Amino acid sequence: MIYKSIFSSPLGYLEICADAGEAVTRLYFTSTPSEQYTESEITRQAARELEEYFSGQRQQFNFALAPEGSAFEQQVWQACCDIGYGKTATFQDLAAAIGDAKSAKKVGQAVEANPIAIAIPTHRVIGKTSLLASFSTEAAQKEALRGAEKQFLNK
């Protein structure tokens, strides 16, 4: 069974999904949140922690994560988790961090494939020119997340 919670963030609705093993498997922005869903303790915990994050009271998440992806993607997502709150890293930085300096393009693809927004902070990954590589609603949300983190750090 898949469990879900909906969290209304300042940037839009977030849908939190978890498996029966009590780990978050997906966390994503949606304009049309599910109307019928069954919550679990882990999805409620994730919603509480997201509320704390968006109010500037939390910099790291404690809920269990179980993102599905290749071994390479898992390695990149773990490296993203090592980027500090309010900090950024480039695709090249992540490629070097995982020991494959020539894999920046592949790192970019793994960043785009991240199934757990915010908690796996791929919004902290930027292009060489300090800009996101794409211009979309998602890119605007990532920019807003980075801006909010910097603002909370400066308080």
Brief synopsis:
By secondary structure, this protein is an alpha+beta fold. The chain has five helices and five strands. The strands form two sheets. Strands 1-2-3 form a three-stranded antiparallel sheet, with helices on one face. The protein has a two-stranded parallel ribbon with strand order 4-5.
The name of the CATH topology of the largest domain is Arc Repressor Mutant, subunit A
CATH class group of the largest domain: Mainly Alpha
The rounded Rg comes to 15 Å
- What strand line-up does the widest sheet have? 1-2-3
The parts where pLDDT drops under 50 for at least 5 residues are none
| Average predicted local confidence, pLDDT | 91
Using the 3D structure, state the CATH architecture of the largest domain: Orthogonal Bundle
